[in-house]
Amino acid sequence: MDLKQTDAANRDTWCFACGTDNPIGLKLKMTITGQSCVAYFTPRREHQSYADRMHGGLISTLLDEVMGDYIFKTTGIPAYTAKIDVRFRKAARIGETLKVEGRIVQHRGRLYITEGSVTKEDGTVVAEATARMMTAK
Ligand SMILES: CCCCCCCCCCCCCCCC(=O)SCCNC(=O)CCNC(=O)[C@H](O)C(C)(C)COP(=O)(O)OP(=O)(O)OC[C@H]1O[C@@H](n2cnc3c(N)ncnc32)[C@H](O)[C@@H]1OP(=O)(O)O
């Protein structure tokens, strides 16, 4: 499909992480659970970096998305990632389901400080992140 012809109102549905219209997107489904946003993702072969290991950039994408979505779902205002810091602790293997979680830690004016984590079903921490996200002026 020619992106220029896409209706502006539908553009958010092309989000690489959560967009339902993006044919190569991750199609994350996120839910607000208490004080956090939660999603589950099972990496496939096409999400690999080295053999049998999920790509770190895509792990960062998962974290970015749940942190941003928590802000959007709880305030109704989109926030843009100004800075993200990810610590990769253990490899995420292809076919292993991951729990991705994000929440707000602090909020001052347009700036939100968030944190997130990716864990395996047995509780092993794959990655942790902090981010600074800002709403538009
Ligand atoms: C209707 C919609 C439906 C939506 C429906 C579904 C949504 C479902 C959820 C999706 C969730 C998506 C989650 C992924 C989100 C992305 O991936 S967003 C894409 C990637 N990020 C971007 O594109 C952001 C690009 N950068 C920018 O747009 C701008 O730099 C920003 C972040 C908006 C800030 O720009 P600005 O407003 O001009 O502010 P600026 O003058 O740079 O800074 C002002 C002050 O803010 C503070 N500040 C700025 N940056 C920082 C920072 N990194 N750290 C600390 N302080 C900072 C400082 O105090 C700064 O003052 P100085 O220290 O410079 O004096």
UniProtKB/TrEMBL annotation:
Pfam families: 4HBT. One of its GO terms (molecular function) is hydrolase activity. It is found in: Cell projection, Ruffle membrane; Cytoplasm; Membrane. Its EC number is 3.1.2.2. Keywords: Apoptosis, Cell membrane, Cell projection, Cytoplasm, Fatty acid metabolism, Hydrolase, Lipid metabolism, Membrane, Transit peptide. The keyword Transit peptide applies. It is a peripheral membrane protein. InterPro entries: HotDog_dom_sf, THEM4/THEM5_acyl-CoA_thioest, Thioestr_dom. Coiled coil: none annotated. Residues 54-127 form the Thioesterase domain. It comes from the Bacteria. The keyword Glycoprotein does not apply. It catalyses: (5Z,8Z,11Z,14Z)-eicosatetraenoyl-CoA + H2O = (5Z,8Z,11Z,14Z)-eicosatetraenoate + CoA + H(+); tetradecanoyl-CoA + H2O = tetradecanoate + CoA + H(+); hexadecanoyl-CoA + H2O = hexadecanoate + CoA + H(+); dodecanoyl-CoA + H2O = dodecanoate + CoA + H(+). GO terms for cellular component: cytoplasm; membrane. Its main location: membrane. GO terms for biological process: fatty acid metabolic process. Belongs to the THEM4/THEM5 thioesterase family. This is Acyl-coenzyme A thioesterase THEM4. It comes from Megasphaera cerevisiae DSM 20462.
